[in-house]
Amino acid sequence: MNLKNIIKFNLAAVAAAGLFSFASCSDDYDGFKMWEGYEVEVPALKPRYIWIDAASNFPDFANSIENITRDLTLAKNAGFTDIVVDVRPTTGDILFNSSLCDQVKSTNAWVDGVKKTIYRTATWDYLQAFIDEGHKLGLRVHAGFNTMTGGHTQGGAENGPEGILFRDPSKKEWANYRYNGGDPKNVMDLGDTEKFFNPGNPEVQEYLCGLLADLAKYNIDGIVLDRGRYNDLYSDFSPLSRQQFEEYIGVKLSKFPGDILPQGSTNTTLGSKYGQYTTKWLEFRAKTIHDFMAKAREAVKAVNPDIKFGVYVGGWYRSYYNTGVNWASKTFDASKTNQWASSRFKNYGYADLMDHMLIGAYANPKGVYGTDEWSMQGFCSQAMQKIKGDCPLVVGGPDVDWRWVGNAPEYTQDEILDAIKNSVGACINACDGYFLFDMIHLKMDPEKWDAVKEGNDAYVADWNDKYGEKTEETPAE
């Protein structure tokens, strides 16, 4: 989508908004001179994205195109312009056509408070159904892609573990090695529920790029990579990663991972004392992810250069180093304010590789407004400061399931609904658009649909007051 639109509108409204001044025209109108039908460039209405998680929404969508149409209509009526439909859930299997991977046959979901296995018996193309129904409604359709996940135990479900790491024992070395004291171990030998790949494994990267190339064959508007990262600080300490790191720094390590992770580190946070090569290791991981993103973008664009390529990331940049990701601009130097960043960490910012970025602005209902991280507005404004225009479209917003925040009962229903309504303006005016996770949380509590509609309607009404009425663009079929 072109972020600027040339439209005909009331010039007096634009002048009143302070966008420009003029000296001589024809007719007077409320104190302003007007040119009838004059064309100028004004900001487009900003997009509003809603994410559709595969597993959570599977009970409704696995076998029913009618339900897909019903809920996309709800999204459209609530003021959303873009959907992100998850087509590679946490098992690592897929809901689109590719000869490289098995289709999702079943997944676990909570139904009426009970965890159940939901089976897909339909034979129609899941992603294509969302594309067809979404485009009919004038929605842009993006495919969400869980990237570095290769298998899932399914939490003891009756259908058992799923994913390529379970089906194909020859792929065991694709899995990441975790360190938590002692020797690092392959996650296939550990009790991790979700089995992550080693992002630095060339075979993993080739496999994922092949899947993305097949995904790009669809008439989708964009692709959004989720979990395009390491699992946490304890990953990946495989023999392959050790070899790659030693080649990167030109040194043979005497202690691994001891020279990297200091005493007192956890899987999410570094300790107060750094190892000899801690910052170089974080730099190396950021380079690994950056280089993979470049390959993934190339794979998509080689098939269809018009598809928007992008990522979802958490807005908590100051602690996001634990995932091996630098989603900022290469001109943003994190080392000036963060001990964990080397002077070369900035070289592996990947914002310039992205056409759109979704920022998780996951604050609690009392944290809608603010200027720093851990407020919704602050997450978005901070992201814009770090990305520095390298990515042309940055959208941010909340996860509206606040049960995970802690002390959730302290939030009344009115506080939750007000937070959702106000989150639209707080986020959309701090960045290039709005993002909400997830559709299931609106469906579980229909009052939330009304709240987000109020927020979206208020944003559009404010835009129309400034620039004149504008209808949403409809994606090309």
Sheet of most strands: 8 strands, parallel, barrel
- Overall mean confidence score, pLDDT: 90
Count the strands? 18
List low-pLDDT spans: 1-35
Strand content: 15-25%
Structure described in brief:
Helix content is 32%, strand content 17%.
How would you describe this protein?
- The chain is built from 13 helices and 18 strands.
- An eight-stranded parallel β-barrel has the order 5-6-9-14-15-16-17-18, surrounded by five helices. It has a two-stranded antiparallel sheet with strand order 1-4.
- Helix 10 runs parallel beside helix 11 and helix 11 packs parallel to helix 13 (447-467).
- The protein starts with a strand and ends in a 10-residue tail after the last helix.
- By secondary structure, it is of the alpha/beta class.
- The model is unreliable at 1-35 (pLDDT under 50).
- Strand 15 (308-314), helix 9 and strand 16 form a beta-alpha-beta unit.
Topology, pairings included?
Layout: E1 4-8, H1 11-16, E2 27-29, E3 32-34, E4 39-43, E5 48-52, H2 54-61, H3 65-77, E6 82-88, E7 106-111, E8 114-119, H4 126-136, E9 140-146, E10 149-152, H5 164-167, E11 177-178, E12 185-186, E13 194-196, H6 202-215, E14 222-226, H7 239-249, H8 278-303, E15 308-314, H9 317-320, E16 356-360, H10 376-387, E17 394-397, H11 413-428, E18 433-436, H12 439-444, H13 447-467
Parallel strand pairs: 5-6, 5-18, 6-9, 9-14, 14-15, 15-16, 16-17, 17-18
Antiparallel strand pairs: 1-4, 2-3, 7-8, 10-13, 11-12
Helix pairs in contact: 3-4, 6-8, 10-11, 11-13
